Amino acid sequence: MVEQITKGIKISVQTFFDGILYDRYQVRYAFGYKVTIENQSNDSVQLKSRFWKIKDALNKTETVEGEGVIGKKPVIKPGEKHTYQSGCLLNTPFGAMSGYYNMINFTSTRKFRVQIPSFKLSAPFALN
């Protein structure tokens, strides 16, 4: 698990290998990740959008951005957490992801960015 705190918002990420898929005669490696967003600040916040950079072992990079996470824009009160699970497909059994969430502080009405720590994706069979 990797963790990082930005402006009182703690991001924790756990990853797992989800299997191999065959898509149009191409092997794809499925990975999942579980993200916990914990509000350790004194103010309620809302996650408005996300940005991900997904890189495989061949240095192919894909960016993903959009509103909310899995169709939600959670409001997280002080001391509360929001957890969700998602995934990605890679062309290689190794890769990495990083990114950020755009959030808003309800007390100050200020927008701010919360870093998502970089984390590795690796298929267990490919490790020494």
From TrEMBL:
Boundaries of every ApaG domain copy: 3-128
InterPro entries cross-referenced by the UniProt entry: ApaG-like (IPR050718), ApaG_domain (IPR007474), ApaG_sf (IPR036767)
NCBIfam families in the cross-refs: PRK05461.1
PANTHER family assigned to the protein according to its UniProt record, in alphabetical order: OS05G0170800 PROTEIN
Name of the protein described by the UniProt record: ApaG domain-containing protein
Organism expressing this protein natively: Zunongwangia profunda (strain DSM 18752 / CCTCC AB 206139 / SM-A87) (Wangia profunda)
Organism lineage string: Bacteria, Pseudomonadati, Bacteroidota, Flavobacteriia, Flavobacteriales
